[in-house]
Design brief:
The complex is a heterodimer of chains A (60) and B (486). Chain A has 60 residues and is mostly helical. Chain A contains two helices and no strands. Chain A has one domain. Chain A is elongated. Chain B has 486 residues and is mostly helical. Chain B contains 20 helices and no strands. The longest helix of chain B is centred in the middle third of the chain and has 51 residues. The chains are: A mainly alpha (60), B mainly alpha (486).
Chain lengths: 60, 486
């Protein structure tokens, strides 16, 4: 259970409490300001994290 | 043919085709309340995905997101974040809610409270609060619809009439099909919205500036600080951002129509798979922002609610009536399909919890379906009336509704997390939280500088809930000991 919670909390923190620390235009990534690139990256990473939570849930 | 006729004609054809084809989905189904309100708990991952996405991605996604990007810049990105965080929460919460719903044949969001806390009175309170916040959400869709129809008609006629006609069609659609119709209509809606968003967020930027990245560069040239969060004194700084993402992600599945969507799942696995993959859908919003930024460069100077119209005005001015009509029809469905789920949820709350559980009216299956159907029409008429007499900007209305329904969150989470939680505690917390939301909204005050006011209300609500629960007897719950991760 603990592993699952940690896996789920990482993307949630990245999209909430981490935001003040990534609130910047530079460096731009693929033309996107860093703030937007950060958010987009974590939206794409979230399903990967959650898929692992899902698989751990299936096993238990 | 003239522009308005072509554009409005396309919208009419698309709307009628979607309504007609989706109505076929209920042929041969006997409409008892279980079928009408929660589709007999039969939706697998595919329809569940469409229903949930269908409810969530509204005209707000289309117009309000672009409008905020246009008029505020970076604060609009909160919408990208909160949906994703909400899906993470739902991975754990939705299956637990579903199990209770399945075991006790729950129909409405308020049923969850009535059953878990063994209190029909609590169910009534939740039903009334849910109803009160749903109606403005429906009127929000109508405001979006008006913008689209007004622009598609090139301002040549009174859009309020067209909005009323479209909405009445949808009301009868819900009357006939219940939640199944909404789910199937979402197939067409989501496909069209996806195409529309790709056009608005990729084709528009390429058409005017060569690429979406150039749009960003140009915006930064004009306003170097537009794509980072503003200073706290604007009320939209980082504190506001984080507190708003937290609040809205907690409130996301607390909407009565979202609870009903959870109930309609076939099994827990469908809900978990949905929670894993729905975040990808959020990327549509990124394209919506590009549309908003493109509009800002092409057509600057729109103020206040007019910003919600920004990219549609660009399309109206620079593209053919065919393109405008196709895009506007996607937008209209994005308003009408979520509205259909909302009026069904509002009608279900009144039929089941207020009339049935409280007043003892229409409790047999046949009467209950009929009453819900009639109330669907009543709620639709009521929303239309409110919309005609009072209108306001899209995001403001939505945030107030979110602040309101999020007050249900402590009652739902503590249902699984803390056995001691009592009906009195949950009820008192909701009443205090909602009163605070109403007070802060009406007076325009803020508790702490820059913190979303619904968030402060939520914390007070949780404290009241815990204290009152400790002072009152533990509930005679049927679900005692049920755990989120069972």
């Amino acid at each position: 259970m603990t592993t699952r919670i940690i896996l789920a909390i990482i993307p949630a923190l990245a999209l909430t409490f981490a935001i003040p620390f990534v609130d910047s235009v530079e460096p731009r990534i693929l033309g996107l300001p860093f703030l937007v690139a950060w958010i987009v990256a974590w939206i794409l990473l979230t399903p990967i994290f959650m898929w692992n939570v899902y698989r751990l849930e299936q096993k238990s | 043919m003239s522009g308005p006729l072509i554009a409005l004609g396309i919208i009419a054809v698309v709307l009628l085709a979607v309504v007609f084809v989706s109505s076929l989905s209920v042929r041969g189904i006997l409409m008892d309340p279980q079928q009408y309100m929660v589709a007999g708990r039969s939706f697998g991952p595919f329809l569940l995905w469409l229903l949930m996405a269908g409810e969530i991605y509204t005209t707000f996604t289309f117009l309000g997101g672009a409008g905020w990007a246009y008029s505020h810049g970076a604060p609009a990105f909160y919408i990208l974040c909160y949906g994703t965080v909400a899906y993470i929460i739902s991975f754990f919460l939705a299956p637990a809610i579903w199990r209770v719903a399945k075991k006790h044949n729950l129909l409405t969001g308020a049923d969850f409270f009535a059953t878990r806390y063994g209190s029909k009175a609590l169910g009534v309170i939740v039903a009334i609060v849910g109803f009160v916040f749903l109606v403005p959400y429906v009127t929000l869709q109508l405001s979006g619809l008006e913008i689209l129809l007004h622009i598609a008609g090139y301002g040549s006629f009174n859009a309020a009439v067209a909005v009323s006609v479209a909405f009445i069609i949808i009301a009868f659609f819900v009357f006939t099909t219940g939640i199944r119709g909404t789910a199937w209509a979402s197939v067409a809606k989501d496909a069209l919205v996806l195409l529309g968003v790709i056009f608005a967020g990729i084709v528009l930027p390429i058409h005017f500036f060569g690429s979406p990245a150039n749009v960003i560069t140009k915006v930064l040239q004009q306003q170097p600080d537009y794509l980072t969060l503003p200073h706290a004194s604007t009320g939209l700084g980082t504190t506001w951002f984080v507190s708003t993402v937290l609040l809205t992600s907690l409130g996301f599945f607390m909407w009565p129509q979202s609870m009903q969507a959870i109930y309609s799942a076939k099994n827990e696995d469908s809900l978990r798979r949905n929670a894993v993959f729905l975040p990808v859908y959020q990327l549509m919003l990124l394209l919506v922002y590009f549309a908003g930024f493109t509009a800002l460069l092409v057509m600057p100077g729109l103020k206040g609610p007019a910003a919600d119209q920004s990219f549609m005005l660009v399309v109206q001015k620079y593209f053919s009536p065919f393109t405008l009509g196709a895009l506007a029809s996607a937008g209209c469905l994005a308003g009408l399909i979520p509205a259909s789920a909302q009026i069904l949820a509002a009608a279900s709350l009144i039929t089941k919890n207020v009339m049935g559980d409280w007043l003892g009216i229409a409790t047999a299956d046949r009467e209950r379906t009929l009453t819900t159907r009639i109330l669907v029409l009543v709620v639709a008429a009521l929303s239309l009336f409110f919309w005609l007499v009072a209108k306001s900007s899209l995001v403001g209305l939505l945030l107030m509704g979110y602040n309101g329904v999020t007050q249900f969150f402590p009652g739902v989470v503590l249902a699984f997390a803390w056995k001691r939680t009592s009906a009195w505690g949950v009820g008192a917390g909701i009443v205090v939280g909602v009163a605070m939301v109403a007070y802060l909204s009406l007076t325009g005050r803020s508790v702490f500088e820059g913190v979303n006011s619904g968030f402060a209300a939520l914390i007070l609500n949780a404290i009241v809930c815990v204290v009152v629960s400790l002072l009152t007897p533990a509930p005679e719950s049927v679900e005692r000991g049920a755990s989120v991760a069972a």
